[in-house]
Specification:
Elements: E1 2-10, H1 14-22, H2 27-30, E2 34-39, E3 50-57, E4 60-72, E5 76-81, E6 88-98, E7 101-110, H3 116-155
Antiparallel strand pairs: 1-7, 2-3, 3-4, 4-5, 5-6, 6-7
Amino acid sequence: MVDVQSETVIDRPCPEVAGYAADPDNAPRWYKNIASAQWRTAKQLQVGSEVAFTARFLGRDLDYVYRITELVPGEKLVMRTAQGPFPMRTTYTWTDLDDRTTRMTLRNKGEPRGFSRILAPFLALMMRLAMQKDPKQLKTILESTTLESNNRKGMS
């Protein structure tokens, strides 16, 4: 079993953080290893939506499809993949710390199958490292957008 969690505090209102992080089209911008995200269902995030991702991991392209299994807009998103050697459940939660600060929790949980079981400790380490970097990239993107917006407002 692999179960990895990270928490990040972002200086942006919860609806903005959740809206950006939950949009699969934004995933390649803040997830280092995700090369692309392609909608397989209508482009509206809802329970049952499916998105195909291509990730670069250990020098190889990995293709997988996530299905949205739970969605509470602005609060929680749960998606699962069942195919492949490493079925995964990814959960995002967003919590208001105040009217302009959000705590985002990201959790990946999976049960490797077959040969992947041998690699589980290594996969957990790689996921842990990525889950430290990716939310920091999200934080940088969202907080720099704030600075750019504020700078533009101050200049007008």
